[in-house]
Design goal:
The protein is α/β, with parallel strands linked by helices. The chain contains ten helices and seven strands. The structure holds S-adenosylmethionine (SAM). S-adenosylmethionine binds next to helix 5.
Length: 222
């Protein structure tokens, strides 16, 4: 499914989110400045897609230039990420988030933007992230939420009725953009997600809503 939408993925992301996606990636990267400032740090951006979260991490790191790796199981997405990263030190790995080809305790930071929600098992995803993090390592999972109140009503109309039609029209692929609202509906509420994080071994688990809770960042420390 992700391979099918890869050619128009970036364009649709920016159009359908009115460019707010850039702010969310940037804000997420800023939360981890204390790790990104360390030249010896190793950072993994999981479900990296075409790499926009990875680039935000890299920009935030600046001259400290820690090792930053993007991983995804769609080669088409990684090919685009690779093209966009020419001349940088970013590296891309084809990998399944549920069975990662990385040793235990390899990374100081693992992020995932809008990818975690798609995993077939959230608990396996969390335990894999915990496994590859070093002690004291941190994780940041940015994903969609469902705001309440009037904003929630407007958002749900847009997300369930307008977005799938525009997404299908522009991508030329039936399915993925109808799947998107369904995948958000099946994603646990913040309280449940935080409980799952604690069970997977994360302490100081928190959720910070972005833009009325349309998106939000889960953070935890190993
Ligand atoms: C909605 S895109 C997000 C891409 C990027 N992080 C962003 O913020 O634009 C979700 C990505 O997760 C990847 N993905 C989904 N399940 C995965 C899994 N089990 N292992 C690795 N990647 C996965 C898809 O291939 C896709 O590129």
């Amino acid at each position: 499914m992700f391979t099918a939408i890869a050619p128009r993925y970036d364009l649709l992301n920016h159009v359908l989110s009115f460019n707010i996606d850039r702010l969310w990636w940037r804000r997420t990267a800023r939360m981890f400045t204390h790790i990104l400032n360390r030249p010896e740090a190793r950072v993994l951006d999981l479900c990296c897609g075409t790499g926009d979260m990875t680039f935000a991490l890299s920009r935030r790191a600046g001259k400290a230039s820690p090792k930053i790796l993007g991983a995804d199981f769609s080669r088409a997405m990684l090919t685009r990420a690779n093209k966009k990263s020419a001349g940088t030190t970013l590296r891309w790995v084809e990998a399944d988030a549920l069975n990662m080809p990385f040793s235990d305790e390899s990374f100081n930071l693992v992020t995932s933007a809008f990818g975690f929600r798609n995993l077939a098992s959230y608990d396996t995803g969390l335990s894999e992230i915990a496994r590859v993090l070093r002690p004291d390592g941190e994780c940041g999972i940015l994903d969609f939420g469902e705001p309440g109140g009037m904003i929630g009503k407007l958002y749900r109309f847009y997300f369930r009725s307008v977005l799938p039609k525009v997404g299908t029209l522009v991508s030329g692929v039936k399915g993925p953009y109808a799947y998107l609202p369904a995948s958000v509906a099946r994603f646990p509420e913040p309280s449940e997600m935080l409980e799952r994080m604690r069970r997977a071994g994360f302490r100081e688990a928190t959720w910070t809503p972005y833009t009325f809770g349309i998106a939000g960042l889960y953070r935890g420390k190993k």
